[in-house]
Amino acid sequence: MRISRTKLIAIASSMTLIGSLFVGASSTVAAPKDKGTVTVWIQGDAKSWPAAVDRANKMFNSKYPNVKVDIQYQTWGDSLKKLDAALVAGNAPDVFEFGNTQVLKYSAAGALRDLTPNKSEFAYSTNWLKGLEEAGSYNDKLYAVPYYAGSRAVMYRTDLFSSLKIKTPKTYDQFLAAADKLMAANASNSKFSAVHMPGKYWYAAMGFVYDSKGAIAVKEGGKWKGSLDSAASIEGLNRWKNIVDKYSKADKSGDEGGQWTVFAGGNVAMSYSNGWETCCISPQKGAFFPMPSIRAGEYMPAFLGGSNLAVPAKAKNAEWGIYWIKSFTSGVAMREIVKVGNLPNNTSMLTLVKGGNAQVAKGASSTWFVPAAEKWVNVENANVLQTMLSDIATGKKTVAQAAKDASEEITKLLN
After folding, report:
1. Are 113 and 136 in contact (CB under 8 A)?
2. Residue 99 forms beta bridges with which residues?
3. Once rounded to an integer, what is the mean pLDDT over residues 329-350?
4. What is the DSSP letter of 32?
5. What is the pLDDT of residue 280?
6. Which residues lie closer than 8 Å to 375 by C-beta, 6 or more apart?
7. CA-CA-CA-CA dihedral for 1, 7, 17, 83, to nearest 10
């Protein structure tokens, strides 16, 4: 489930093709049969939590004892292409796992079954992680159920904090104070960053925007409008620029790719990182704390990566598919998913996350997600946010001008 740009925009088929296949698809669940097979396409990541799959299958078969569960493990690189081919051929699986940013285009095209009538039947549906629920929703309807998540927090050098007697920050002011102290103590090192913050790191920068109650875009009168030039968004962008200017020696025209390698190089004290990035850092030197919000007692919203489970609109065994998803996202199965280090799909179980990811889980209680616009992928493909941030970081444009230009471009692309 590790999020990458490839995964984020890996929807190969066009909206037009998908829409032509599914407009008018029936939302009626077929009458249950006594025997048959429910076909489930989930990513191979789930092989790392076989107990969860086993528990889901047993729960499913307790209700449908004569139905075989056919788990077919997929790979992120080609699963959407396989799904598109299956949809065209009329032999779609009954359950399909999407990366959370992949759901929207299929939902908008009518390719997925509306699960809104079943929402209350899913465990933890009243407190799903906001980012995952938003990812599976379109036009106030549910099309994909939250499965599991990954989030970001501040990864920091415990040895540097200890040597300078810095406590892990609980407030935004304490975060800045820690960065000031770290920069002062390493003033002789021209390569040192108290906070590693590349200029195009939009997942981080937009966290500052949403923490200031700004947004990338808002919907007004049925149309989308870029809103990075709002007063709130500008305030967040200015705070992000302060981090870049004062505490970071990262490439102002670069992105966050491979930042764990930079961290491990010894010239970085803090970075805004995915929970799994400690895989490449010595456990004696790398730990996490949630990024503090400008509001006391809160965390800065983090972009929530993860997966959602959906039932194709023309699935042959939709009722079985829905119940298998219920089984796989039930409490007993979710506990097994959490045991191996993943974040659960709900806020109630975040406290069950142990080890280094526990602090990341705390931050996941506050999240943001990209606008639920049908044409959002056009904004990503055009690198609008990256260009804006690089222009700000390099000084090519002022914050106000860069934000205004980006908002105008976003408005055009989304409409």
Report:
1. no
2. 307
3. 94
4. P
5. 66
6. 413, 414, 415
7. -40
The segment with the largest mean pLDDT, out of 147-151, 215-219, 369-373, is 215-219
Judge whether residue 146 has pLDDT over 90.
yes
Q: Is 25 left (phi over 0), alpha (psi -120 to 50) or beta?
A: beta
**The predicted structure's pLDDT at residue 32:** 53
**Among 274-283, 299-308, 390-399, which stretch is predicted with the lowest mean pLDDT?**
274-283
Q: How far apart are CA 279 and CA 282, in angstroms?
A: 8
Q: Which amino acid is at 243?
A: I
Specify the pLDDT at position 260: 87
Angle between helices 50-63 and 331-339 (to 10 degrees): 170
Neighbours of 296 (CB within 10 A): 10
Q: How far is CA 402 from CA 208, 213, 228, 237, 408, in A?
A: 16, 19, 9, 10, 10
Q: Write the pLDDT tens digit of every residue in 42-61.
A: 999 999 999 999 999 999 99
Instruction: With H, G, I as helix, E, B as strand and everything else as coil, classify residue 162.
Output: helix
Question: Rounded to the nearest 10 degrees, how much is the dihedral formed by the CA atoms of 264, 255, 44, 22?
Answer: 170
Q: Which two tokens stand for residue 245?
A: 């200017």
Q: Examine the pLDDT at 3 and tell me if it is beyond 70.
A: no
Q: Say whether pLDDT at 23 is over 70.
A: no
Task: Give pLDDT, residue 178.
Answer: 98
C-alpha to C-alpha distance for 322 and 29, rounded to whole angstroms: 10
The two three-digit tokens of residue 200, written as one number: 């195009």
Residue 359 to residue 361: CA distance in whole angstroms: 5
The pLDDT mean for the chain works out to 90
How many whole angstroms separate alpha carbon 52 and alpha carbon 261? 33
Farthest-apart Cα atoms in the chain, separation: 74
Return d(Cα 155, Cα 401) in angstroms, integer. 32
DSSP character string of 318-338 = HHHHHHHHHHHTSHHHHHHHH
Pairing between β-strand 193-196 and β-strand 286-289 as defined by DSSP bridges: unpaired
What number of CA atoms fall less than 13 Å from residue 265's CA on the CB side? Answer: 14
DSSP state of 136: T
Cα 141 to Cα 105, 126, 185: the distances in Å are 14, 15, 53
The number of residues in the chain equals: 415
DSSP secondary structure string for all residues of 267-295: SEEEEEEEGGGGGGS-TTTEEEEPPBPSS
CB 311 within 8 A of CB 41: no
